[in-house]
Amino acid sequence: MTRPQDAARRFVAMLPTALTAGHQVIYSPLISMMPLGQGIDLGGSEAVIFTSANGVSVAAETLATTGMPAYCLGQRTTSKARDAGWKAEFCGKTADELVTELLQRRPAGRLLHLRGEHSRGNVAERLNTAGLICREQVIYSQPLLTLTAEALAVLSASGDIVVPLFSPRTARQFADLCPNDANIHLIAMSEAVAEPLKLLNYKDLNVCKEPDVQAMAKLASAIVLRLNRVESGRSAQ
Q: What are phi and psi of 108, to 5 degrees?
């Protein structure tokens, strides 16, 4: 698991226990989240945009509950913003869907996109180009991490390894660090995530039909089940 610890453990908890029993789960985050520790200037904004749950967490540490509208990308981000006191509304699973939704709604007033240092989709720029008023503020950084010694040892061994990857940036980092002869079964949340993985020497590369964790969990479960069946077949021979 290459996500930060909390997110990785939530994902593993989504998988059927009976399916993962007997398998080792390796936690080796390739990215972390660090608040920049600066104030957030709402600056007359009448609504905010959150494209990650991390953005909500950092904003909650800085701002008192405002009850302002919050347009959110993803169900988890929406739920977290709602729990933090925002009038949160789900606006899609991808940045493209979020931009399209906001352009259809055309909310009145100024918007503020609270985001990480690395964010895809150029949300504020696209909204401004289309006639909405939106500025952005970077409120946390996302430094990359290296693979742990345990992860490198497992990747260098001969066993099959299932590796779910959730973002293009962590996929690129994994592709740079993964041993070339690892027996890896890769799961990418989207085609953008899959792209940097294509240079690796993998057993198979699977791409989710929908870019969300539920689809990732379903696909991961199917792959683990398939590998279990193959292993059972070998044992029966």
A: -80, 155
Does domain 5-32+145-236 correspond to CATH entry 3.40.50.300? Answer: no
Q: What is the DSSP letter of 31?
A: B
The tens digit of pLDDT for each residue in 46-105 reads 999 999 999 999 999 988 766 899 999 999 999 999 999 999 999 999 999 999 999 999
**Structure tokens that stand for 11 in this block:** 């994902």
CATH topology agreement for domains 5-32+145-236 and 39-141: yes
E strands within 61-203?
69-72, 87-90, 111-116, 134-141, 161-165, 184-188
Using DSSP's 3-state secondary structure scheme, residue 111 falls into strand
Q: What ranges do the domains of the chain cover?
A: 5-32+145-236, 39-141
Considering the domain delimited by 39-141, tell me its CATH architecture.
Answer: 3-Layer(aba) Sandwich (3.40)
- Give this prediction's pTM: 0.86
CA distance 79 to 167: 21
Please count the residues of the chain.
Answer: 237
Q: What is the pLDDT of residues 149-188, one digit of tens each?
A: 999 999 999 889 999 999 999 999 999 999 988 999 999 9
Position 143 pLDDT exceeds 70: yes
User: Edge to edge, what strands does the sheet with 204-207 contain?
Assistant: 161-165, 184-188, 204-207
Gap between the Cα atoms of 116 and 57, Å rounded: 11
CA distances from 92 to 44, 52, 185, 218 (A): 25, 12, 28, 20
